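WARN retry 2 of 3 for item q-0093 after timeout on previous attempt; input resubmitted unchanged.
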Amino acid sequence: MTLQQLKYIITSAEVVSITEASKLLYISQPSLSGAIKDVENEIGISIFTRCRAGIALTKEGMEFLGYARQVVQQMELLESKYISNQPAKQRFCVSTQHYTFTSNAFVELVRQFGQERFEFILNETQTHQIIKDVRNRFSDIGILFISNGNESVLKKVLEENDLSFYELFTSSPHVFLKKNHPLATKKSLTLEDLRPYPKLSFVQGNYESVYFAEELFSNEPSEKSIKVSDRAAIVNFMIGLDGYTISSGISQSICKEILLFLFLLTNLNLCVSDI
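OK item q-0093 returned
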């Protein structure tokens, strides 16, 4: 097994296609397939399953990919330090549900710890993809919410993926509306108050269910529902259609401290003066 073969496997997993991966890697498709097959024979597992639509990681392949990423990243650190004579490129990746406070906190993280060379990644994505990213070691941490409604299912999924959930904070539900919304002057709202207005939520793809939803009270029926894939659309529909969404309402300052703390935990080579 070679470092180059590991890079082949990582690229193939990212684009979920041997054909597309071969183009990116500038090698022939048969050569790429052969290299992957050699590794599979060597380690005694199937890393990918093949189908007409492309390829998909097996359960064993997901675990292997996580270790492969670590090996390649460590080799890149060694090359930077001892061959290129450059400062090690700092890498930190967070996969998260669609929260404004997370992106704002990430800005502060980069400002404080971004050195001469770095690769910081913030991946706002679907709930199941967050779990997959951390399971495959693409992301150092994942940020998602657990409530009484989804706790049993999500914790089971996390356990099946050998992951643990650590509660960072608790929050009460907050309704997000445009400034001049008919309900904006009320100090508190009920679900009945919200019923006449479009409920805005994020799509979860193949895992569309109340258990993977990012919004509280997702199991409550709604006559008007709009699902989107990005935060910008949520804001546009709030403004243009008097829509609403329910989220945590957590402050940016609290999330900034949490994100900085998590970064320090995953980068223990920092000296005390950096904290």
